[in-house]
Amino acid sequence: MSTKTCIPRLLQGRATGPRHARLPTSSSSSLRSATHCYTQQRRHESNSSAPSYTATILMPKTSFPARSNAKVAQEVYLKVASDDVYAWQKNTLPEESLFILHDGPPYANADVHLGHSVNRIIKDIILRYQILRGRRVSYIPGWDCHGLPIELKVLEKVGKGKDGKKKVAALTAPEIRALARKHADSFVESQMASFREWATMGEWENPYKTMNPDFEIRQLEIFKSMLNNGLIYRSDRPVYWSCESYTALAEAELEYASEHTSKTVYVKFPIENASEVLGSDLAGKKVEFLIWTTTPWTIPSNKAIAVGHGMTYIVVRSEQHGYLLIGESRKEFLETEIGPLEIVSGPFSGEQLTALTYTHPLLTTDTPSQPVFAAHFVTADSGTGLVHMAPGHGMDDYLVCQSHGIDPYSPVNSYGKFDSNLPPELSDLVGKPVLKVGQDMVIERLQTAGALAGTNPAYKHKYPYDWRSKKPVIIRSTPQWFANVGNIKDQALDALENANFHPAIGKHRLSSFVRDRSEWCISRQRVWGVPIPALFDNETGEALLTDESVTHIIKEIEKVGIDMWFTDEEDTTHWVAPQYRESGKSYSKGRDTMDVWFDSGSSWTLIQEKYGNLRKDRETLVDVYSEGSDQHRGWFQSSLLTYVADQHNGKAPYANVITHGFTLDEHGRKMSKSLGNVIAPAQITTSGYKNVAAIGSSGLRLWVAQSEYTTDIAFSTTVMQRVADSLSKIRRTMRYVLGNLDGFDGQEVEYSQLRPTDQYALCQLYDLEQDCKAAYDQFAFNRVIQAVMRHVSRLSASYLDTSKDRIYVDEKTSLSRRSVQTVLCQIFRVYESILSPVIPLLTQEAWHHAPAFIKKNDPDACFSPFVSGWVSAPEEWKNEELRLEFAKLEKIGDAAKIVLARAREDKKIGSSLDACVVVSAPEGSSVLELLKKYESHLAELLVVSAVSVSPSSELASSISSKHWTYASDPVTTGEDTEAESVIVHAVNPELGKCARCWQYTAPAESEICPRCAGVVEKIGEVSL
User: Residue 686 carries which DSSP code?
Assistant: First the structure.
């Protein structure tokens, strides 16, 4: 009989014949089914009169259920895995190790969706990993509670009275604020309940809300600090304006529709002094500027025309439209728009044209001459080469006109309708919406006046929309409060250099937003928010906004409550600081509130107040900010600007900025309410989605973790089914490991006493732990899951499969069996460590069912894997020599798998145990030496009854007596292909099949082999 040896099972096919109970897989999902499988096979294959050795087989045994029970998981393990763990780490782990993840407040105005779960679960994974690494963490959940959407929502709920009039008109500002507060509170509660169901931990009993009095006071203090630093000012200038919400908007509150359709017009403006400037040959001829605009409604507000620096212009003649002055480079294009053009005069420089004046085509009564200015924003690649300027409706127009002493003019009210500031000739436009009827009427008036040279009723271009109402905005000049971002821009950009961004493109994105911004419109014309603490002189309208005044107002708000600011009081004296009361002036409270980005951007003050002393020696206040990619223009930016403006320390408030993408549906579309494709997380966790059964919070968390969250995240039933399968594989593996630790006393075998196959399993476990730790450190959770699932598959197909002979058949306390249990202990600990940040409910459940020695024999103190901490693989597991040797053996294993499959196809074998293997290698080769070294271990992993190793020269004699053989192609395991050539033969066994272990190692059929005989004798129990 040949010496029993083995080849790594890692790349081998599973044995399909009876050997012993198999590791539960998708076709064998429980330990009970594994036992039943073994018993049935034994009955089928054994003679009815032969003894049964079933009772002598050490089958897995554990109380860990085969399937999860979502209800039990939530009721039994949720509190322990979340609240108890958070409280434990807060009270136990060292304060100086504090890791702070500052919560970007979700908006308290809607039910949760998948985007919320992505955001919350990413944050929770980060926190849990830090706890495992021995760091105390702080996570204070927050909510953004102010702002327009909430105010509009509560006003919609109020509805109309029986008389058809809106009840809103009867509501006072404090009443609206009370309704808004109640509305926000209700969604804070509902969202919080959902977040907690996903096993996310934090200080849920003490969250922050931007509407809390302490938060509002800190926000006002930041405003005062920026005021004292000269960064706050009031100006009547163009701002983005929402006609739906009647308020100014900041750039961060816009989204751009690339397919917006506008009505465009070519308009003629009569030149007054053409011949004086352009030449006497134009004397007596009516020459007109031709301009093109996508906003015809702004024509009544025209105050000047801009020409380009360095551009050249010509006068052309059109049979239909007369003499026109246009950009020389635009002639060819304009002929496609308004017909043939004949050059009459020119070229002229843009600077020459600044001596011209013109009149407004719609104004006939005492029309003043209007100027021409040169401007850098005028280009030769669009329009006519000239730009009509309405300084009340465009920032470029405003800046040029302001430099020439022309004030903004905006005859449009807060509802987006023309107002009574229009000239008498245009009074019929008053009350007409500028984007609708009003614009059409302007075009009609231009047509009537003979000033219209062409129109396009459906010009598609990019246009700003209010990201809340999803309606187009206008630009309108109104008095607003601004923060001078330009003065701190360089400091902010320098501060970003010391922050890490994941993904790295986030730094470029945020930097570009900051770099392109010079001011921040921080005022809003609503009542649900934090007031801008300005008083206004009742006679002059001049604003009183000084350090003394704001300090007094903040103290008054602390005393009487912020809602009092919004009441209509007859006597407002108590709001006026004492030093201003004696001036004889009377003041009114300003009604503007702050931009909600200023609210949330002030949230770092909570961390400063709570942990400022502890963090004063740290580079940054907060370790991690993590939100969606849209927050580069929102919270990331507003937090940076307020922090830099207040702290003056040249630092950003965050060390790491982590961004995730949006959730996409099965068709690759962004999930949104308007599309009706939003999915509630509860459909995944509890009720099931389409044909995918509910997978609980563990499944939801695993989906988030396995996703490449730095890009948009796809959701589909196919993806969720894969997640469910992965979750099932993890659970089955954990259950199998626990089942085979039954009866183990925890006294682990020394590494040096382990078999090479055991050591190789630990080598692979070392790689897993190292890879996952590196991935966690880089916030790359998908790489963690990829590594785990590769290891699970490999583990099941190799070590767990090939070690079953020892774990089931060997004597209970034998070194060989305890060696396997030692490895299984380490697998369980490392898996608990790696998987606990992602699926804490499952790992907590497995921990509950684990033997006492895993919990250091003190289940109360070591109640969770988080208490045990991160399990670091010892360096001795690395074993590079073993890794290289097994890499060679795996190549030989591939060949063995092929020849065994051929034997199985020809019905020579059923199970791989029905065969033996002969491996030959050249005499004196290193591979022969390697095979001889591992000869006593090879058959176990190959799952064959025996393996013999033979020099190539002796191969013929080794297989000559066999009834059948299957030979592999030559296998090379090294650089010297000839010297390293190996042949693998599958051959028939020569001994009998053991009735207990089913290997062909018994003296005769239906008897047991010497090994099994020794075990049975020691057990002293055989069932007949």
Answer: I
Any domain includes 969: yes
Residue 858 makes CB contacts below 8 A (sequence gap 6+) with: none
| Better-predicted residue by pLDDT, 33 or 714 | 714
Domain endpoint, select from 634, 660, 686: 660
Cα 652 from Cα 508, distance rounded (Å): 15
Give me the mean pLDDT over the 880-901 stretch.
Answer: 92
Closest to 737 (Cα-Cα) out of 625, 843, 611: 843
User: What does the alpha-carbon distance between residue 700 and residue 555 come to, in Å, rounded to a whole number?
Assistant: 47
Which has the closest alpha carbon to 348: 416, 281, 394, 298?
281
Q: Which of 850, 870, 855, 575 is nearest to 740 (CA)?
A: 850
Using the CB atoms, write b or e for 692-729: b if 16+ within 10 Å: bebbbbbbbbbbbbbbebbebbbbbeebbebbbebbbb
Q: Are residues 891 and 948 in the same domain?
A: yes
User: Among 361, 363, 341, 337, which Cα is nearest to 455's?
Assistant: 337
Parallel, antiparallel or unpaired: strands 663-664 and 713-714: parallel
pTM: 0.86
Number of other residues whose CB lies within 10 A of the CB of residue 86: 22
Contact at 8 Å (CB) between 586 and 600?
A: no
Count of structural domains within the chain: 4
DSSP assignments along 929-952, one per residue: HHHHHTTTTHHHHHT-SEEEEEEG
pLDDT in tens, 649-690: 889 999 999 999 999 988 888 888 777 888 899 999 988 888
> How many degrees, rounded to 5, is the angle at CA 393 between CA 383 and CA 368?
85
**CA distance linking residue 149 with residue 363, whole number of Å:** 41
Both 576 and 620 in one domain: the answer is: no
What is the span of the domain harbouring residue 545? 541-587
Confidence of residue 648 (pLDDT cuts 50, 70, 90): confident
Residue 815 CB neighbours (<10 A) = 14
| SS3 state at 366 | coil
Contact of 226 with 605, CB cutoff 8 Å: no
Dig out the tokens for 54 from the structure: 């079933």
90 neighbors 100 (Cβ within 8 angstroms): no
Give domain status of residue 551, yes or no.
yes
pLDDT of 161 above 50: no
For the CA atoms of the chain, what is the radius of gyration? 39
pLDDT of 743-797, one tens digit each?
999 999 999 999 999 999 999 999 999 999 999 999 999 999 999 999 999 998 8
Percent of the chain with pLDDT over 90: 71
SS3 call for 312: strand
| Crossing angle of the two packed helices 173-197 and 114-132, in degrees rounded to 10 | 60
Predicted pLDDT of residue 430:
95
Task: Report CA-CA distances (Å) from 321 to 176, 285, 313, 356.
Answer: 56, 12, 18, 20
pLDDT at 9: 32
Residue 165 has pLDDT above 90, yes or no: no
How is 380-447 classified by DSSP, letter by letter?
SSSTTSEEEE-TTS-HHHHHHHHHTTPPP---B-TTSBB-TTS-GGGGGGTT-BTTTHHHHHHHHHHH
Distance CA 58, CA 745 (A): 15
Nearest by Cα to 785 from 890, 689, 704 = 704
Average pLDDT of the chain?
A: 89
- Say if residues 185 and 571 touch (Cβ distance below 8 Å): no
For residue 969, give the CATH number of its domain: 1.10.730.20
| Arithmetic mean of pLDDT, 341-345 | 92
Residues 137, 89 contacting (CB under 8 angstroms): yes
Residue 24: CA atoms inside 13 Å, Cβ hemisphere, count? Answer: 28
Beta bridge partners of 267: 291, 452
Q: Please, what is the angle between helix 173-197 and helix 148-158, to 10°?
A: 110
Same domain as 635, residue 525? yes
Is 1023 inside a domain boundary?
no
